[in-house]
Amino acid sequence: MVVTKFNEVLPKATAKRLPQYYRIFKQFVADKVDRTNSQAIAAKLGVDSATVRRDFSLFGELGRRGYGYDTTALRDFFGNLLGDSAETNIALVGVGNLGRALINYRFHDRNKMRITQAYDVAGNPLVGTKTDDGIPIYNISDIQKNLADANIETAIISVQSDRAQEVADLLIAAGIKGILNFTPRRLQVPENITVQSVDLTSELQTLLFFMQDKKETENKL
């Protein structure tokens, strides 16, 4: 659990922005920008500069008055904070349309994360094969046996909602500690298990809401 310099739990809103800060500073370094300020960071993130300064203040003195922020130092700081200094192997359960898209997504080109195993039920014709990148697709009945000797603590669930809890239980029994859940099902897990849910329908509905809200605002002007 990440705590702030005030010995408090990091706010969820700030925690969700950490990967964005990391991506921004990696791009600054790639573009050979040596230092920056909160206004430039805020412009890339789509928030106000006060939010950036407030987030950064939770970790102590990340910048210097009159100088700004050292981009290389901040890239390394957020990389270490997010655990990007080590390889992260991931198991994927559910090799349907979304699952295949996730397998083909180049996590490793952007961060030190990669899907190394995939699982589905025996009826899926892909079970027993490998992807073009050599990722094996196993029968879900083999999940506990395969994960026992693998360096995998993270998994992605991309199955039908009514199977999500069953799959989560299997993963936890196999030693998984973190789950990225791509179903709208709210998972019941022990306190020592971390779950991050991505409900694509809700995200799209939120997008449409903000689009409509902008239209109504513009029409009033």
UniProtKB/TrEMBL annotation:
SUPFAM superfamilies: NAD(P)-binding Rossmann-fold domains (SSF51735), Winged helix' DNA-binding domain (SSF46785)
Pfam families: CoA_binding, Put_DNA-bind_N
GO cellular component: cytoplasm
Origin superkingdom: Bacteria
Annotated CoA-binding domain residues: 83-186
DNA-binding feature ranges: 20-59
One annotated GO biological process: response to redox state
Main localization, broad class: cytoplasm
Keywords per UniProt: Cytoplasm, DNA-binding, NAD, Repressor, Transcription, Transcription regulation
Subcellular location: Cytoplasm
Similarity section: Belongs to the transcriptional regulatory Rex family.
Subunit structure, interactors included: Homodimer.
Name by which UniProt lists this protein: Redox-sensing transcriptional repressor Rex
Organism: Pseudolactococcus laudensis
